[in-house]
Specification:
alpha/beta; 510 residues; single chain; 16 helices; Aldehyde Dehydrogenase, Chain A, domain 2; Aldehyde Dehydrogenase, Chain A, domain 1; 6-stranded mixed sheet; 24 strands; 7-stranded mixed sheet
Length: 510
């Protein structure tokens, strides 16, 4: 990694230190505050990440502001060609980035490659910016008058990304912002920045000019600094509801555009006519994949009518999943991100028992030979879950699946619509009529029909809603082009030199 130099951990073991990217240079932070990047399967310290100083943040923003003067005037084709090169470099280096991601985040290697690939799709979309950033024209709206719009970049934009998708989420943000003519300051998660920084290196290699992309690391102080800085025009955030609400309120008060994708409690409804084998596999994969650390994880299964008899079969399917270190072959469920995350998940499992839910499958303290220090929680299944129980009301963000039983589809819809979150939901059925009724009546931003994790491809936009989202426009797709650009409307008339005109004191253009 060219963005890291060697340092010495307290134990005396040399580990890399993660650098900042400011004005095209990977620079060593001058901070006195550092955080360890820890392999969650082994507790090995992989690197040390700096909590950037206010001066370093100011330098990154200043570099982005200076670069904007020329980058905004760079032809669209030239911008697009950088992202064509970038997607090629990501493909060529995918295995390397996936290995870094698995080591620092814990997810399995196949899931890590999926993380990268979903971000790569947005990079490919950014390369198509020429057809996405077009304005509108109305010819001859009045006598010799045309009206047209320009989609112009805003200026310096910023992104704050979470630990659970250190490849996909950064790639949702800076490629589209930069492709539309903005410059960018990225703050990766301080828990797992190594794979993000490798992707940043590749972006620089692809030809993104100095100052157009900058990276600062940090925690609350850096987040607040991005929210407050007067030269930052827009902020994109993905993470917890608590932090997202803070970012939205603080940055909005500072006059910025803000989009915050936040927490969730995603329900999947199963009707008795659902195709059983496919549905069981989907429920287990979407509930326990990535150790449940997805904002789009299917964390609540709503079994309707006779489908409530499927609980034991869900449990049997979940028991077949292998828990272990993400780089080991055949592993389905890796560790959660930290010791604190594991303790919180186990505490919530205990509350499920206290609140009266039935623990069908207990994933606490799974045996993982050779990894006694890992942050492992195995697939856990609760039945008899009801609103008001802490395992239902809170986002667990771990491999815990809650089963709720209802009598009818309308009961399921009412249950979901009463939940404050609106990120995603799904329905498994063979009935087109039931599916249409569900998609029309459900008040959730992203709906899957026989699809457990309905994250749209980049041709569309991520459209979480209600308590899961603050801001009108979602990341990537057509909506994010509007987010990262300002619409300027031009009304123009060119006079015929021989035309005769008179003074007109009305507002009419005729």
């Amino acid at each position: 990694m060219t963005q890291a130099t060697r340092s010495t951990a307290p134990s005396g073991t040399a580990v890399p230190t993660i650098k900042l990217l400011i004005n095209g240079e990977f620079v060593e932070s001058q901070t006195t505050q550092w955080r360890d990047v820890v392999n969650p399967a082994t507790q090995q310290v992989l690197a040390r990440v700096p909590l950037a100083t206010p001066e370093e943040l100011a330098a990154a923003v200043a570099a982005a502001k200076a670069a904007f003067r020329t980058w905004r005037k760079t032809p669209i084709g030239a911008r697009a060609r950088i992202f064509l090169k970038y997607q090629q470099l990501i493909r060529e280096n995918m295995s390397e980035v996936a290995a870094l991601l698995t080591a620092e985040q814990g997810k399995t290697l196949p899931d890590a490659e999926g993380d990268i690939f979903r971000g790569l799709e947005v990079v490919e979309h950014a390369a198509n910016i020429g057809s996405l950033q077009m304005g509108e024209l109305a010819n001859n709206v009045a006598n010799g008058v045309d009206t047209y719009t320009l989609q112009q970049p805003l200026g310096v934009c910023a992104g704050i990304t979470p630990f659970n998708f250190p490849a996909m989420i950064p790639l949702w943000m800076f490629p589209m912002a930069i492709a539309t003519g903005n410059t960018f300051v990225l703050k990766p998660s301080e828990q797992d920045p190594m794979s993000t920084m490798r992707l940043v290196e590749l972006a620089v290699e692809a030809g993104i000019p100095a100052g157009v992309l900058n990276v600062v690391h940090g925690a609350e102080d850096v987040v607040n600094g991005l929210c407050d800085h007067p030269d930052i025009r827009a902020i994109s955030f993905v993470g917890s509801t608590r932090v997202g609400t803070h970012v939205y309120n603080r940055a909005s008060l500072a006059g910025k555009r803000v989009q915050c994708m936040m927490g969730a409690k995603n329900h999947v409804v199963v009707l008795p006519d659902a195709p059983k084998e496919q549905t069981l596999n989907a429920l287990v994969g979407a509930g326990f994949g990535a150790a449940g650390q997805r904002c789009m994880a299917s964390s609540v299964v709503v079994l309707v009518g006779e489908a409530r008899a499927w609980v034991d079969e869900i449990a049997e399917r979940a028991k077949t999943l292998k828990v272990g270190a993400g780089h080991e072959p055949g592993v389905d469920v890796g560790p959660v991100i930290s010791c604190a995350a594991r303790a919180r998940i186990e505490s919530l499992i205990a509350t499920g028992l206290e609140d009266g839910a039935r623990l069908v499958l207990d994933g606490r303290n799974p045996p993982v030979p050779g990894y006694d220090n890992g942050n492992f929680v195995g697939p856990t299944l609760f039945a008899g879950v009801k609103p008001g129980m802490r395992i239902y009301d809170q986002e667990i963000f771990g491999p815990v699946l809650c089963v709720v039983e209802v009598d009818t589809l309308d009961d399921a819809i009412a249950l979901i619509n009463a939940n404050p979150n609106g990120n995603g939901t799904g329905l498994f059925t063979r009935s087109g009529g039931a599916a249409r009724h569900f998609q029309e009546e459900i008040d959730v931003g992203q709906v899957g029909i026989n699809v457990p994790i309905p994250v749209p491809v980049p041709l569309f936009s991520f459209t979480g809603s209600r308590g899961s989202k603050l801001g009108d426009l979602g990341p990537y797709g057509k909506q994010v082009v509007l987010f990262y650009t300002q619409t300027k409307t031009v009304t123009a008339r060119w006079f015929d030199e021989d035309a005769v005109s008179t003074v007109n004191t009305t507002i009419s253009l005729r």
